[in-house]
Predict the structure.
Amino acid sequence: KQEVTQIPAALSVPEGENLVLNCSFTDSAIYNLQWFRQDPGKGLTSLLLIQSSQREQTSGRLNASLDKSSGRSTLYIAASQPGDSATYLCAVIHYGQNFVFGPGTRLSVLP
Amino acid sequence: DAGITQSPRYKITETGRQVTLMCHQTWSHSYMFWYRQDLGHGLRLIYYSAAADITDKGEVPDGYVVSRSKTENFPLTLESATRSQTSVYFCASLITGTGDYGYTFGSGTRLTVV
């Protein structure tokens, strides 16, 4: 059974810092991995989708990498801003099956 | 607006009542899902549907019923609501184009059972 963990569970940083969020999964035979952002009381917004054949994806200040063999993905946020404060979730999917979500990392960026 | 629409956004109901949460997508995505999100448990899959008239149980299906008579709609019914079903419910659809195999979520329904 696929298990997904995220470290750290919570993170508080001053504005402007570069930071890394980690996602680990136990079964490396995944199809895709997706990073989401969730603001309090809101739904999940997709940030980046990494296909299993890719090593990384970039969108603006966000960069996500994927190392299937080690069962890891990292989300790098450059020059963090208070507006980045949210919970970040990673999810992995095996083809034809459902996503398995991690518990999330709660990020606070202090002005 | 294109996307996934959930209704209502907030609902308070009494124990034992039947309540239906609605989910509508403006695309024609085959797969649709219902999740519940609770503190300490994260997102848990309730039911999913691979196509119209095809549904299957997820991790926590007890007490819930779904139907999918049309591709764009996927309602979730709590047959006899219990306090343990107080949660935030999210509907999602799955994009299954080549390589772009990822989720889109609705804004959620916050359900309180009193």
Notes: The radius of gyration of chain B is 13 Å. Chain B has a mean pLDDT of 91.
